[in-house]
Design a protein that fits this description.
heterodimer; A: alpha/beta; Rossmann fold; B: Rossmann fold; 13 helices; 8 strands; globular; binds cobalamin; binds guanosine-5'-triphosphate; binds magnesium ion; Methylmalonyl-CoA mutase (chain A)
């Protein structure tokens, strides 16, 4: 292990936002990401968009993963994206969303700057591969 | 790339840009190229914050307490930085950093800067990385900096020793905790907090701790335990000076800090005001006794040694590689063609010559 071969560890925040008590998916993802060698910070339940923004900015995560099954994604996700923009964190954070997101809502979220959406049934390898390939460079 | 990028980042950090502070800590944590220049540049801007290190067994309530402490300082109008160091699972690479989840009292308040750090890749230098991250927060202008780490081994002790004041958190009724203290953590505690004071056994744990502190500080107390024990239980909120009036009236030596024991209920915030007062007493003591400066010098000395060790190691590794790698040397030693002392002598010779030449 030589000194200059800096090993890149991908840092992720897995966030539950709003009054959404479904946390199984977030736990499944957190564990899978950890096992894939990522560093995972889990927000815990019922977080306000402001808290998610604060955590994303301060922890300087490569990946923000938002888990929403409550149906409130169309109001909550844009708030988070606007906050990231305000603090200059939007460009170099990969934002992915999982949970129950109806097909017709997906283009709107992508337009807001979401990079990918992973619903139920997505093979875990696919999600992990996507993160590995798209996590932004930190130099 | 290069110098310009780093200087720009430092400038933005000094300007109070949160994102720049976050990125600087990332660079420190991953030892990115250029991170040394950054730490060099911010060094001159440090020295204003007071730093508290909090350690204790897993689940003792450290993060919950940190959250309430941060809230208390914020209510006083001060800004706060928190570094939560999780030394677990450094080998697999993956980790879940769970301290942030307890930050519930400072929702969306950017003036509490909370950062989770892992032990990844630090190879024993975790305390250096923590100290550098503390510098970043200090240069940013944080008034209060809190370091949280689980109390498990030497690594964590080193981490927490980068603070001015060390707080050791203990849970009531767990003889285990007090046992752990005997095994080395006791020596580093300036303030002991019996958290979860709402649970059974808190007062007994307080008494046990005070007894241990007295034994540690005053070996003669052993002969006189009943008396001291009782006194300790009656008044465990003294203010750091020896007030024993039954001692001979020898001239008073330099003021000494006697570790204090405080009870808290981190979940409700009970006892936090008293803890804050005790921390402030300790800081006053450090400043007035000159120990604050002495500690800073010791820390600087330790930082220099640590960096020298790792840099020299790096140089030697490269030298070894240039000479065909350690494996060849090892085989030669096993085949009795040479021996470890001769190899060491041989590899170090250029370095030694260089230093000796300079001496003349
Ligand atoms: C189990 C469950 C519950 C449990 C939750 C237990 C818990 N602690 O999680 C309980 C019984 C408490 C519950 C309650 C409710 N539920 Co419910 N629940 C479900 C159910 C059946 C399964 C959800 C689940 O756990 N799946 C297993 C996990 C592993 O899958 P997952 O969360 O989808 O996650 C996967 C992917 O989405 C993705 N993913 C998820 N998050 C993330 C994050 C990232 C970063 C990434 C990359 C991927 C990712 O990866 C995961 C693995 O593939 C769903 C229906 C369904 N089939 O989805 C309804 C469902 C989600 N619930 C629903 C509703 C309405 C409710 C209630 C409001 C009322 C009710 N009728 O009971 C309450 C609200 C509770 C609250 N406070 O929020 C609706 C939501 C409708 C909507 N969004 O429009 C659903 C869809 C049922 C339905 N068809 O109506 N529920
Ligand atoms: N009853 C009681 N529970 C508490 C108190 N303080 C913390 N807890 C609970 O103890 C649990 C652990 O608290 P944390 O703050 O996460 O403890 P920690 O020491 O940071 O834990 P690690 O970082 O995992 O070592 C949580 O469920 C808290 O709610 C207290 O004063 N009383
Ligand atoms: Mg903790």
């Amino acid at each position: 292990m030589s000194a200059d071969s800096e090993q890149r560890t991908i840092r992720c925040l897995i966030a539950k936002v709003g009054l959404d008590g479904h946390d199984r998916g977030a736990h499944v993802i957190s564990r899978a990401f950890r096992d894939a060698g990522f560093e995972v910070i889990y927000s815990g339940l019922h977080r306000a968009p402001d808290e998610i923004i604060q955590a994303t900015v301060q922890e300087d995560v490569d990946v923000l993963g938002i888990s929403i099954l409550s149906g409130a994604h169309n109001t909550l996700v844009p708030k988070v994206m606007a906050g990231l923009e305000e603090y200059g964190a939007l460009d170099d954070t990969l934002v992915i969303v999982g949970g129950i997101i109806p097909d017709e809502d997906r283009p709107g979220l992508m337009e807001e700057g979401v990079d990918a959406i992973f619903g139920p049934g997505t093979p875990m390898e696919e999600t992990i591969e996507f993160v590995k390939e798209n996590a932004p460079e930190r130099t | 790339m290069g110098q310009a990028v780093e200087s720009d980042l430092v400038e933005r950090l000094l300007d109070g840009e949160h994102r720049a502070l976050a990125r600087v800590i990332t660079k420190i944590e991953s030892q990115s190229p250029g991170y040394r220049d950054i730490v060099s540049e911010i060094h001159a801007h440090t020295g204003h914050a007071s730093v508290v290190g909090i350690t204790g067994s897993p689940g003792a309530g450290k993060s919950t307490l940190v959250d309430k402490l941060a809230k208390f300082y914020r209510d006083q109008g001060e800004t706060v930085g928190v570094i939560a160091v999780d030394p677990s699972s450094p080998y697999t690479g993956g980790a879940v950093l769970g301290d942030r989840i307890r930050m519930a009292s400072n929702v969306g308040d950017m003036d509490v800067f909370f950062r989770s750090m892992s032990a990844r890749g630090q190879l024993g230098g975790l305390s250096t990385a923590t100290a550098d991250a503390v510098k970043a927060l200090d240069a940013f202008g944080k008034d209060r900096i809190i370091i949280e780490t689980v109390g498990a081994g030497q690594n964590e002790v080193d981490v927490v020793k980068t603070a001015d004041t060390v707080v050791v958190l203990v849970q009531p009724g767990s003889g285990d905790d007090v046992q752990m203290l005997k095994a080395g953590i006791l020596e580093i505690g300036d303030v002991f907090v019996v958290n979860k004071a709402d649970m059974e056994g808190a007062s007994r744990t307080v008494a046990e701790l005070e007894e241990m502190i007295h034994l540690r500080d005053d070996p003669r107390a052993k002969l006189d335990m009943g008396h001291h024990g009782a006194e300790a239980m009656g008044d465990h909120h003294g203010h750091g000076e020896h007030t024993d009036d039954d001692q001979d009236d020898e001239p008073e030596p330099d003021p000494v800090w006697t570790p204090q024991v405080v009870e808290t209920i981190a979940t409700t915030g009970e006892g936090i005001d008293e803890l804050v007062e005790t921390l402030s007493d300790h800081y006053t003591y450090l400043a007035e006794s000159g120990e604050l400066d002495e500690k800073a010098r010791q820390r600087a000395a330790e930082e220099i040694r640590q960096l020298l060790r790792s840099d020299v190691n790096r140089l030697l590794e490269r030298e070894l590689d240039d000479r065909g790698g350690i494996d060849d040397f090892a085989s030669a030693v096993v085949d009795k063609e040479t021996d470890p002392y001769a190899v060491t002598e041989d590899v170090l010779e250029p370095l030694r010559e260089c230093l000796e030449d300079r001496d003349d």
